[in-house]
Amino acid sequence: MEVVLREVHDSDLPVFFRQMNDPESLRMAAFTPQDPADRDAFDAHWAKVRTSSVVLRTILADGDVVGSAAVYGEPGEREVTYWVDRAYWGQGVATAALRALLTEVPERPLYARAASDNAGSLRVLEKCGFQRTATARGYAQARGKEIDETVLTLRG
After folding, report:
1. Nearest one of 113, 119, 118 to 133, comparing CA atoms
2. What SS3 class is residue 69?
3. What is the three-class DSSP state of 152?
4. Is 62 buried (19+), middle (13-18) or exposed (0-12) by CB count in 10 A?
C-alpha cells in the first residue's frame, strides 16, 4: 500500500468529519472535541488551522483519503497529531504517514500525547522514534472522565 501526504483540500473535510465521528475511533483517541458531531464547530476549527502555522496534511493510501496528520504549537513545544480511518488500523498507514511528516518537519524536539491505553498509537509513535517521557492525567471528552495520558518526545 502506498501512503503519501499532501496539502489538505476542501473535498477532504467531509471525509475527516465522517472519520472523526466513528464511535470506536473517538473512544481510542479519547481527547476529542466536546461535540464531534457539531459540524459548525468542526468547520470553524478547520478554517482556523488551515490559515495558521500548523503543518497540516491529508493522508492518502493508494490514492484514497484515509486521515490527517499535523504538527502544531510553538517552537520548542510543537506536537504531532494524526487521525487514521479505523478501516486502515493495523496496516502500517499511521506509521508511514507519521514518518513522512517527520521527514517534512525536521525540527526537534517534537512531542506527542496518547491515551495510555491506546496501545496502537503508542506503538506507532515508538516505531517513529518517540520515547515515553512522562505521564499525565486529563479529561477525555470522548470517555467522559479523567484518564491517564502518555507524553512522548522525539529528540535529535
Report:
1. 113
2. strand
3. strand
4. exposed
> If you search the block for the grid coordinates 500525547, which residue do you land on?
113
Give the closest residue to 53 by CA, choosing from 69, 73, 38.
73
**Could you identify the residue written with the cell 492518502?**
60
Residue 44 cell numbers, joined: 470553524
Helices (H), the chain: 13-19, 23-29, 39-50, 93-104, 119-127
* C-alpha 105: how far from chain center: 15
- Render each residue's pLDDT in the chain as its tens digit; 156 residues: 999 999 999 999 999 999 999 999 999 999 999 999 999 999 999 999 999 999 999 999 999 999 999 999 998 999 999 999 999 999 999 999 999 999 999 999 999 999 999 999 999 999 999 999 999 999 999 999 999 999 999 998
pLDDT of residue 156: 80
Strand partners, 22: none
d(C-alpha 4, C-alpha 152), whole Å? 24
The CA distance from 88 to 62, in Å, is 12
